[in-house]
Amino acid sequence: MREEQKQLSLKRLFRKRWVFPAIYLSSAALIIAGALWFQLGKDENTGKDNVAENGAAQQENPAVPVNETVENIAMPVLDPNAVQVKTPFYDDDASEQEQEAALVFYDHTYHPNQGIDLARQDGKTFDVTAALSGTVAKAEKDPILGYVVEINHEQGVKTVYQSLADVKVEAGDTVKQGEVIGKAGQSEFNKEAGIHVHFEIRKDGKPVNPIDYIDKPLTALTDQAKDRAGDNRAATNKEKQLMPSDETAPTETEQTPADDNTTAPSDDHSQQNEDASSYKTPDASIGMARA
């Protein structure tokens, strides 16, 4: 009896119009909810994997701060307007007059100046500062050059400060650009300059004219070195192309023999010529600063 009543109740229920749409909507809602739950779980796992991968990548490649300032090479003094160039840099491409002004006379020999000598107009001493941030490689007294400080920088650049009266740094110290490293003094090497500082910039051990790179970044020195290397390679290749072949080279029989009656000049006369030339020609070894 009860079963018949249940069946009658179900038949009455299914006869109503809203029953089947309600069943369809409920089923659809369950299916959609299941799909969303599955997708959310998958996205959460993927996000965790991405976070782990990004964290490992950041550890391998640490971020570089975008606001990091690039230093430009500065004059090695607190007030650049208070000093003047006493002795300029010796440039092989300069005029004869400019080259003569860049010679330093010491020990009966003219030496090309490998840097610039800076002095005050009133002849007084002044503070000498680091032209760039770096690490002090040398800080010691030289009997001829005075106190000498050498600072290593990035990209194979080194700055040299000579003729100092004293020093305030030691080898191994880290200095900032503009930090006082000593005071200008005198040296036996260039007495005519008076109280001054001798300042050099070297790129891979070779001196360059500091005036050409003041207020410029280190990349200017790197670009200059690349251009110079390219010019040297081009010149070398051109020389190889112009060299005569072995067939056109003169043989020993084609060379003009020396006259047997020709007599060599006396040793005394040769010695006089050598002494005279030592005062007129700059020393090729360039002894301005000892490495």
From TrEMBL:
Tell me the segments the record calls region Disordered. 222-291
Q: Where are the transmembrane segments?
A: 21-40
Q: Which residues form the M23ase beta-sheet core domain?
A: 112-210
Keyword Transmembrane helix appears in the UniProt entry? yes
Any one Pfam family here would be Peptidase_M23
Name of the molecule in the record:
Stage II sporulation protein Q
Q: Provide this UniProt record's keywords sorted from A to Z.
A: Membrane, Transmembrane, Transmembrane helix
Basic and acidic residues composition bias: residue spans: 224-241
> Which InterPro entries does the annotation name?
Cell_wall_metabolism_enzyme (IPR050570), Dup_hybrid_motif (IPR011055), M23ase_b-sheet_dom (IPR016047)
Q: Where is the composition biased (Low complexity)?
A: 247-258
Please name the Gene3D superfamilies in this protein's record.
Glucose Permease (Domain IIA) (2.70.70.10)
In which domain of life is the source organism classified?
Bacteria
Q: Which organism is it from?
A: Geobacillus icigianus
